Amino acid sequence: MEKIKTYFILLIMIFSVLSCKNQDKEVGNSLKKISLTYAKGFEILKGDGYWEIEVSQPWTGATQSFRYLILEKNSAKPEGDFDAIVQLPVNKIILTSTTQVPHLDLLNETEKLIGFPNTDLISSPKTRELINEKKVKELGAGPATNPEMVIDQAPDWIMVSTLGEDIRYLDLLKTAGVPALINGEYVEQHPLGRAEWIKFTGILLGKYEEAKKVFDKVESSYLEAKKLINRREKTSFPTVLSGVLYQDIWYAPGSESWGAKILENAGGNYIFEDQKGTGSVQLSYEYVLDRGLEADFWIGSADFSNIQKMGESEPRYRAFEAWKNGKVYSYTLKQGATGGLEYFELGYMRPDLILKDLIKILHPELLPDYELYFYQQLHEK
After folding, report:
1. Nearest CA among 126, 118, 121 for reference residue 143
2. N or C: where does the chain have the smaller number of CB atoms within 10 Å of the terminal CB?
3. What is the CA radius of gyration of the chain?
4. CA distances from 312 to 163, 185, 308, 324, 375 (A)
């Protein structure tokens, strides 16, 4: 009987180990799948002296995927077709979105950036120093990089965001021998899913382990803050209005979006929680007024500098109780030297700071010593 009991316990232990969601798995004879906890848009495979990354969600609704090979030093290329091949180590890289810039700072690789479109949008002090020293080439002030300038810079790789127009230059860059890799972080709707894309960048820099450590710290910080709210009843959550009017249409985050999920984790009762969608939803002013007239807070009110200017720009805003009571908050607290908002640069990578900001606003007693990082209350002037 004792042997049967021991055997049963052993089976449970084995099952528990095999069921662990974070376990890395063997794929084929030589590849090991490196598990990701939150990100859904890419996969990591580790081989002997190389990495393979497959981006399965390069943009919203994509039906095609992209496969990349990253070769470590003195490693032979495995068989197979790849959309881009990166040879480590790398010394010169180009980014196309401000959300990618913090990855370099956190991995101590800022100096490898040699080009960026519309550099005025960058807030990072480290990167601004490089820009001021003329070490980062301006690659165009429009919505896309200038492909000829990219090719002239001969980077070891360029990271492309499909939110812009750079996707149309993939074939041209490939023909010119410039590895172009798609970063689809914005498709992720779990707050930590976007942050986990630092592992993607880490592999491209030969710094996967360092990237994993950075992410683990962000994850721990986020989950610790979330615990503060988990102990509270939802009936105690204040109501929250979000969004702005533009040409008679009210644009607000859909209830399945990244922003709405952070708001929920922060203990906010989002008044549009029944409006499904991972992007913005379009609502009429009358509908919003009916739902949000008496909302306790208004969070995410564009980039107005004060509540007076906000009311002057759109008189209909003045009807809401949150506006009347001065309970309006915007993500404009920190700006770069040339006007870029740090929220749109560091926010994807540090959802823990956004979460703490929102907890501080909605439940200030839970974080008495915390100072807002991204958000600020709009005052009269």
Report:
1. 118
2. N
3. 23
4. 32, 36, 6, 13, 21
Q: What percent of the chain has pLDDT over 70?
A: 91
pLDDT of residue 3: 40
At 18 the three-state DSSP class reads helix
Quote the pLDDT of residue 7: 37
Start-to-end C-alpha separation, the chain: 79
Q: DSSP label at 102?
A: H
Given this model, what pLDDT does residue 9 score? 37
| pLDDT over 50 at 14, yes or no | no
Residue whose token pair is 């960026």: 116
Cα pseudo-dihedral 88, 91, 180, 107, rounded to 10:
80
Q: Supply the pTM of this predicted model.
A: 0.90
Collapsing DSSP states into helix, strand and coil, what is residue 87? strand
CATH topology of domain 20-219: Rossmann fold (3.40.50)
Return d(Cα 38, Cα 224) in angstroms, integer: 16
Write out the two tokens for 193. 């899913």
In the chain, list all ranges with CATH 3.40.50.1980.
20-219, 232-377
Tokens 């790849």 belong to residue:
82
Q: How many residues does the chain have?
A: 381
Residue 380: pLDDT band (50, 70, 90) is confident
Answer whether the bond into residue 89 is a cis peptide, omega within 30°: yes
